[in-house]
Design brief:
14 helices; alpha+beta; 419 residues; four-stranded mixed sheet; UDP-n-acetylglucosamine1-carboxyvinyl-transferase, Chain; 26 strands; binds ligand EPZ; globular; 2 domains
Length: 419
């Protein structure tokens, strides 16, 4: 397994372009199952999670071609079963359920495993399918859904931790080919859900209210192919901005939607950083003083759980007492133990981390555990004294396209060591 060595203390400067959004591309690729026509999806990032999704789609019978960031998919004759050895590697595989149910009125997909960020149930997805008239059975580690008729219904996507992003996606992808009108209350408002809705509308779907908590979907008989470009990855962009806060002189992140990052830009400004926004770029530079933060993650448009670990890496060096609570994934603190190995002072009482920022971190061998925790360790390594060795770097490669090359382009000194 590869590892990366981060030589701390180098300043970052210049500008970097953000790749296409992983969390947009994954459901959009799955949505291509909804038509026999060819779909062309552009701006698809080169990530292992994308590779997993394309492998699953091929296994389901799709013809898949990929040329750099452009993927073409033709789901002419498809199977409706995705086995455990395919699904277990990536939880987001669950988002093939909705399009298979919508297109073929049946699906059998292995239940996704849990993962280190916490329990990953799909009860809300299944409730949504049942509201459309599907029968749901969980047997032998698989979830089976089938419907003689799929008809519009009223669904609520809110659970104890708020709404569900992939649950909203899944029900939307089943509802677009149902008979009649479906209303989704408590829908996720994430930009990635809006991106999926826009792709589905490009295929001929009738969807109203994307980006709000109330979606209305008028089922149609069939959908046609589409040529679509996914939005920039707001979490990669946010990660780059935090890198600029931790180790930047003046860092510009390009090809992003600043409006998608308000909930990250605002706390960075509160923490004392200078931030200028343009139409598709944001520049961060140090401010006069720095302040600790009290942050709570909530569904969009609130502060994103996918940025929680990265902000921890910033706040462990920000003098003062900071507090971060993760309401979405209360156990998502695998990064805390590893940051502590680097000298961070964090008291964890999940779902809250109490951070005493002390300005100092020292490089150490640390273990990556999940995508965003790994990114946090890399960010901390940028500012640590000495070398930080991050093992199991495949976690980072799941969600960040060549992140070591991008940081080195900005002035960092990161080596990728083939293990
Ligand atoms: C999506 O996961 C993202 N993944 C996650 O990003 C992100 O952290 C998450 O949304 C929250 O924003 C993709 O889009 C591929 P949820 P998803 O269903 O949809 C509970 C990353 O780092 N819940 O919105 O799987 C659940 O346990 C990844 O890029 C239920 O209770 O997350 C959690 O507490 C990690 N029942 C909360 O809702 C359900 O049926 C939010 O989960 C579904 C979810």
């Amino acid at each position: 397994m590869d590892k990366i060595l981060v030589h701390g203390g180098r300043k970052l400067r210049g500008s970097i372009r953000v790749s296409g959004s992983k969390n947009s591309a994954l459901p959009i690729l799955a949505a291509a199952l909804l038509t026999r026509d060819t779909c062309v999806i552009r701006g698809v990032p080169d990530l292992s999670d994308i590779h997993y999704m394309l492998t699953i789609l091929s296994h389901l019978g799709c013809e898949v071609e990929r040329a750099s960031g452009v993927v073409s998919i033709r789901a002419d004759k498809i199977r409706t079963e995705a086995s455990y050895d395919l699904v277990r590697k990536m939880r987001a595989s669950v988002c093939v359920l909705g399009p298979l149910l919508g297109r073929e009125r049946e699906a059998c997909v292995a239940l996704p495993g849990g993962c280190v960020i916490g329990d990953r149930p799909i009860d809300l997805h299944l409730l949504g399918f049942e509201a459309l008239g599907a029968a749901v059975r969980v047997t032998g580690g698989n979830v089976k859904v089938f419907a003689t008729r799929l008809r519009g219904g009223s669904v609520n996507m809110c659970g104890t931790h708020g709404t569900t992003v992939l649950g909203t996606d899944n029900v939307m992808m089943a509802a677009v080919l149902a008979e009649g009108v479906t209303e989704i209350h408590g829908a996720a408002e994430e930009p990635e859900v809006v991106d999926l809705a826009n792709f589905l509308k490009a295929m001929g779907a009738r969807i109203h209210g994307a980006g709000t908590s109330h979606l209305m979907i008028e089922g149609v008989k069939e959908l046609h192919g589409a040529d679509y470009t996914v939005i920039p990855d707001r979490i990669e962009a946010g990660t780059m901005l935090v890198a600029g806060a931790i180790a930047g002189e003046k860092l510009t992140v390009r090809r992003l939607r600043p409006d998608h990052l308000e909930s990250v830009i605002t706390p960075l400004r509160t923490a004392g950083f200078q931030i200028e926004t343009e139409t598709d770029a944001v520049t961060i530079s140090p401010g006069e003083k720095s302040s600790p933060l009290h942050l709570e993650t909530t569904p969009y448009p609130g502060f994103p759980t996918d940025m929680q670990a990265q902000m921890c890496a910033l706040l462990v060096r920000t003098p003062g007492e900071s507090v971060i609570t993760d309401h979405v994934f209360p156990q998502r603190f695998m990064h805390v133990a590893e940051l502590s190995r680097m000298g961070a002072q964090i008291r964890l009482e999940a779902p809250t981390a109490f951070i005493t920022g002390n300005g100092r971190l020292s490089g150490a061998p640390v273990m990556a555990s999940d995508l965003r925790a790994s990114a946090a360790l890399l960010l901390a390594g940028l500012a640590a004294e000495g070398v930080t060795e991050i093992n199991r770097v495949y976690h980072i490669d799941r969600g960040y396209e060549r992140i070591d090359e991008k940081f080195n382009f900005l002035g960092a000194h990161i080596e990728r060591v083939k293990a």
